[in-house]
Structures are given as structure tokens and as C-alpha cells.
Amino acid sequence: MGKNLKEAMKMLEDSQRRTEEENGKKPLSGDIPGPLQGSGQDMVSILQLVQNLMHGDEDEEPQSTRIQNIGEQGHISLLGHSLGAYISTLDKEKLRKLTTRILSDTTLWLCRIFRYENGCAYFHEEEREGLAKICRLAIHSRDGDKDPSCEIARFSPQLGLPFPCLCRVPCNTVFGSQHQMDVAFLEKLIKDDIERGKLPLLLVANAGTAAVGHTDKIGRLKELCEQYGIWLHAATKCDSMTLTPGPWLGLPAVPAVTLYKHDDPALTLVSGLTSNKPADKLRALPLWLSLQYLGLDGIVERIKHACQLVSGNLKFVEDELSSPVVVFRFFQELPGSDPGLNAIPVPSAAPSAVGRERHSCDALNRWLGEQLKQLVPVSGLTVMDLEVEGTCVRFSPLMTAAVLGMRGEDVDQLVACIQSKLPVLTCTLQLREEFKQEVEATAGLLYVDDPNWPGIGVVRYEHANDDKSSLKLDPEGEKIHAGLLKKLNELESDLTFKMGPEYKSMKSCIYIGMASDDIDVSELVETIAVTAREIEENSRLLENMTEVVRKGIQEAQVQLQKANEERLLEEGVLRQIPVVGSVLNWFSPVQASQKGRTFNLTAGSLESTEHTYVYKVQGSGVTPPQTPTGTRVKQRLPGQKPFKRSLRGSDAISETSSVSHIEDLEKVEQLSGGQEASEANSPERHPGAPAPLEAEPPGALQDGAQGLQHDRPQVEEPESLR
Questions:
Q1: Alpha helices of 572-600 — where are they, by DSSP H?
Q2: What is the rounded distance in angstroms from the CA atom of residue 6 to the CA atom of residue 175?
Q3: Can you tell me the mean pLDDT for 355-381?
């Protein structure tokens, strides 16, 4: 059985590696159910189907799994499930003896490891299932003859109690940790319940909270519970407690355990903590095998190793006990102070940022957590939201170290990654306000306040036809922002740019990412405004060009038709007859004036060609508009990327050279201006003028065009009209 299990696990792991290597080959899709094959399938095909269902389609985003490779102790745990199915086929007597031994051994070992003498154990799959059974036991212990579940079972299928029977004890607000139970307030609640005729029954405390690993004041709570006869569910100094040895020891598919103390077997049986079914007793088999494989020294070593990973580099001291959990966040405590990292368990260092600053830091902490998870995947970090502190990053090696195989070197790498990300977070946070002010002071740009974006900020360009009151999708604005995003990415700066919908509408915006260095925000904003304005004007010109050209062609056709009619009236009908017209033209030639039209693409209008034939030069037309540019052009050093501030030390050194360079540029501009003036006075055709459109009679446009080509100088077609 163990051999077959190892072979099956090896096939699954090898299939996973092949899937990662063969990117071009898609795995078989198992999302759509199919009919059961009549001839059956072999084990390899079945395991291939299981592998496809486990890892999904390659088109989906890969999700990091906590258990990458199951070790030998994991195989022992999985073997327990196979053995449990095999053992259940034994005869009743052998099965009873074997299950009793497995249950007794596992209970004894766990009670001694966690110093819970003379305790009983309940093994369950769901972590909260044991607490529900303990609540039933507490109810029957205080009033064994009365079962409240008979009349109010519809309120809770687990306990049979209405919701008013549950009371949440608040945590400390003034003194002590904000994640510990307020003992004074608890005592007040107990006294109030007793005065109202209610019966305080059970108290659930935490020895290591799920969020930040805080431990309630168990000693003080135990005294309070003994004073009022309340069942305490917490840790060693209590009536019951729940353990999760699976993640602590890196064991897959092992049950959770609830240890409790009670002397009445009948009440435990009624409460569901004990059972006579062999299948319920066999739940402990995987844990029974795994504990024997690890041994006492191996179990203690794994738990100590998790605690040492925290105490080595990420120190954290609580009020009473040291906890193997560190929860930290990046924050800006006060205006004008330096940002930094704050360990949540330290009450005196709690951040004071609220409102907008709170949301801003939350976005940065989400970015930090995701970056660290990608850089150090074996760290097992999780991003979490706390009610008071906000978004934080949790490092809990007790829950992940044994599963992921984390070592001390990995923690050192994690600390180094945190230190490398701090300058990026600090720089980004400091540039946000400057970016907002620059955008608000720039015409045509709108600052978008998106609390979920961790970068410098979000900006939207407002074009001429933008409906500011509408929240719907704007196709013209989306086109402009798509072109703007392309232009910004072509600059090859250190910033990342993305396009997406606005936080509160469907209009497109440009999202600027994190800043790793000192950024010239004014240059960045000016570049965005100038580039967007240029894209809008070019887009408007292209959209209008089709209509302008169409109208110009129609007008030119009408004028040419009118000129042909005038020429027909002037020359007479006889000259239009092919043979007669040629003889008549030979005897009496007609001195017809050349009439034509030129279409100016810049002005969008028709102009006469009379100036061309009289002065033998084409007109200059309308000067095209200049491309919009910024009010200032930054002189970058060789190799310097866009939007980078110049070093202060280099400004004084390059001051004289920059002044002389500007003087040289002015001299070159003066020389080029003089040459342009002299060329404008020359009697030759201006290179920017458009080519003429000649008025020709119908049927003779080609010959007329060729004749015109001999009458005027041979000039190449302007580049702007091609």
C-alpha cells in the first residue's frame, strides 16, 4: 500500500513538472463532466485527470500553493487515510481493539506534549467543530435535564442557541494591547448578566490570536472563570483547548484536536465528543502515524525552529509571552516625520494616520505584501486587514515554516527585501502630494483620487468634448489615453504606466506606478499634458481631413466643370469636332489662358493658379501650425533617463557649459533664419506650395497635364502632399 501511494505521488509530481516545462501543450480540460466509460481506465489516465483538475488550465493565472513538495512525513500522513479504509474491513472485535489503541496513544502523546494532564481528545476536520461540541458539553454540565435545542434549534444547527446567547467581549482600548480581551469589561458583563437572570456558561480566549498572535491574560481569566463557575476554552490553564498540529508540523490531511477535561462519559457522549463508531475513532490514524514518525524530539524541534525564525531577525516582545507571529505595516506617523515600518504588536508605535492617509498607506502595504510574497515565496506572508491598524503584512512561521521548508537564510532574504523596498515606499509617499498639486495647476489635467492605487497617482486628460458630468465610458477619451500610454512607455523611464477606468466612473485614466528614485514631478506632469494635447489635436486633424478633402474635391469638380463650359462658349462648337477643330485651330489658333486650381491641405481651401503662371512660382499658402511643446525643455545628461532630477552637485559644474551651449544655439538659429529669408526672395518655386490642378476639357485631361508640365519648370512633388 505504501509503495503504491509513493508511485501515485511520484506520478502526480512528475506530471506537474512536465506541465510547467511544456508551455505550448495544454492539459486536458476536466471542467465539463463526461459519461463514465464502459471499459474502464488505467491508473495512469486517472491520475492524469486528477493532475489536470488540481492545477487547472494554463491560461489561468497560476496560484501559489502552500504545499509544493510533500516530504516523507507527508507521505506517512497520507498513508494513514489509505490504512484507515483498509482497517475498516476487519472484523468488529479486531477493529474495536485497534481503534481504541490508536485513540488512546494519540490522546496520551498530545496531552504530554502540551502539558495537559488527564485530558481527553476529540479529533475533527473543521477547526471550529470542537468548540461547538465543548459548548454542548458546558450546557449539559450546568443543566443536564434541560436541552434548549428542542425549542430553538432553528436558530443554530450546531448549538441550538439563539444569537442573543452569544456575547462578544471587546478588547483593550486604553491600556494594554488592542488585540487582548478587556478583563475588567468582561467582569462587568458577567455581573450584568447575573443581575438580569442570565447564566454565564463558557468563555473562549486566545492563546495566540489568528490575526496578530496575541495571547489573552489566561491566568487572570482562569481566576475569573473559577470565581463565577464559567467554562474556559483557551490553553493549558483551562477546561479545554483546540490544537491544529497539521500546519505546525507540516503534516497534510491530519485532523484538528480539541483537548478537554470531564469526568462524566455520558455527557461527553451526548455532546458528541465521544463516539462508538469505528470510523470516528479512525480519524486519529494519520496523526498517530505522523507523531511516531517525527518523534518527541522532532516535534519539539519544529516548533522551536518556527519561534527562532522570528526571534532571530524580527524581534517582537508582548506583555506576557513571546509570540511566533510578527505583523508589520508601512506608515507615516506624523506630518513631517520620516515614514517607516511599524510592528503592530507594539502599542506605543501605532500609526496616527486616518482618513485619506490611512487608505494611502493601505494601498502601499498591499503592494509591499505582494512584492515580498513574489520575492520570497517560502516566507508564507499573508496580507490582512485589521480593524484599527488597517492593511498589514503577517509573518507567521509556526503556520508555514514546516510546510514550506523555511530556513534562517530565507528570513535574512526577507529582511533584505523589506529594506530594499523601503526607499521605494518612502519616495512614492513623498511625491504624491507634489504630484497632486502639479496636476491641479495644469490646464487640461484632472487629478483622480484612487485610494486603492499604490503608485504616485492617477491622472485623466480632459479633452475638448469631454462631458465632465457624465460617468459613462468616453470613446474619444479612451483613444487619447491609449495613445498617451503608448507614448509614455516609449520614453523608457523607470516609471510604470497603466491605463484603466477611473475609481468612480468608467472614464479612462493613466495610472503612474511606484517611484524608485527622485522624480521630477513637474516634468512628468508637463510631459503628460503636452503629449495628450498633441494626440488630441492630431486626432482631430485626421478626423476632419476626410471631410475637408471630400468637400474640396466636390468644389474643384464644380469649378472645373464651370471653366470647361466657359471655354466651350469662348472657342465655339466647331473647334470641339475632332477633324474640323484641328483644321480650324491650324488656320486660326486660339490664345486660351491657363486656368487651374490648387487645393491647400493646410487651409482646406481651393486657390487659383494664376499666380503660378504669371510669376512662375507657387504661392507659399498658409503656414502650418506648430506642434505644441512644453514651456521649458530640460537638458538631460548623457545616459540620464526621463523624469530624473539632476544631482545638485552637478548643477554648479555644468552651469557655464549650459550657458555657452544656449548661446551657440541662438547663433545657429540666427544663421538659419537669414538663409530662410534669402530663399523666400528667390524667384523659384517654394518647396512647401501645393501642386496646381489644371482646368482641361473633358476627355483631354491627360494631354493637358502633360502640356502643362512642359510649360513650367520641372519641380518635385512636395513631401507634405504625398
A1: 578-587
A2: 55
A3: 87
Pairing of strands 457-461, 508-512: antiparallel
- At residue 468, does pLDDT exceed 60? yes
Count Cβ atoms below 10 Å from residue 399 Cβ, excluding itself. Answer: 23
Distances (CA, A) of 472 to 17, 458, 465, 468, 615: 46, 18, 14, 10, 57
Cβ contact 302:402 at 8 Å: yes
Q: Among residues 369, 360, 357, 373, which one has the least CA distance to residue 329?
A: 369
The span from the CA of 152 to the CA of 159, in Å, is: 10
Give dist(CA 283, CA 287) in Å, integer: 8
Main-chain phi, psi angles of 259, to 5 degrees: -95, 135
Inter-residue contact 508 to 499 (CB < 8 Å): yes
- Would you state the pLDDT for residue 569? 74
Q: Cα(699)–Cα(705) distance, rounded to whole angstroms?
A: 12
| pTM > 0.70: yes or no | no
The owner of cell 443536564 is: 144
Are 224 and 186 spatial neighbours (Cβ–Cβ below 8 Å)? yes
The average pLDDT across 574-586 equals: 73
The β-bridge relationship of strands 202-204 and 120-124 is unpaired
DSSP secondary structure of 547-576: HHHHHHHHHHHHHHHHHHHHHHHHH-SGGG
**What DSSP string runs through 26-87?**
PPPP-SS--PPPSS---HHHHHHHHHHHHH--TTSPP---S-SS--HHHHHHHHHHHHHHHH
Over the stretch 501-512, which tens digit does the pLDDT of each residue have?
Answer: 877 777 889 999
Residue type, 287: L
Handedness of CA 610, 612, 615, 620 (dihedral sign): positive
Over residues 319-359, the pLDDT tens digits come to: 445 678 888 889 876 455 456 666 654 333 334 445 667 77
Q: How far is CA 223 from CA 135, 227, 232, 238, 429, in A?
A: 20, 6, 10, 10, 48
Residue 343's nearest CA partner among 319, 325, 363, 366 is 325
Are 271 and 137 within 8 A, CB to CB? yes
The CA distance from 329 to 425, in Å, is: 11
Which uninterrupted H or E stretch holds 124?
Answer: strand 120-124
CA distance linking residue 190 with residue 183, whole number of Å: 11
What SS3 string covers 303-344?
HHHHHHHHHHHCCCCCCCCCCCCEEEEEECCCCCCCCEEEEC
Q: Give CA 86 to chain center in angstroms.
A: 47
Would you list the DSSP string of 704-721?
HHHHHHHHS---PPPGGG
Which three cell numbers, joined as nine digits, stand for 147?
A: 436541552
pLDDT band at 142 (very low <50, low <70, confident <90, very high): confident
d(C-alpha 204, C-alpha 216), whole Å: 10
What's the confidence (pLDDT) of residue 252?
87
CA distance readout (Å), 592 to 544, 612, 635, 696:
37, 16, 60, 11
CA distances from 134 to 117, 180, 193, 257 (A): 18, 22, 21, 12
Task: Kindly list the strands in the beta sheet with 382-386, ordered across the sheet, starting from the edge strand earlier in the chain.
Answer: 340-343, 326-331, 390-395, 382-386
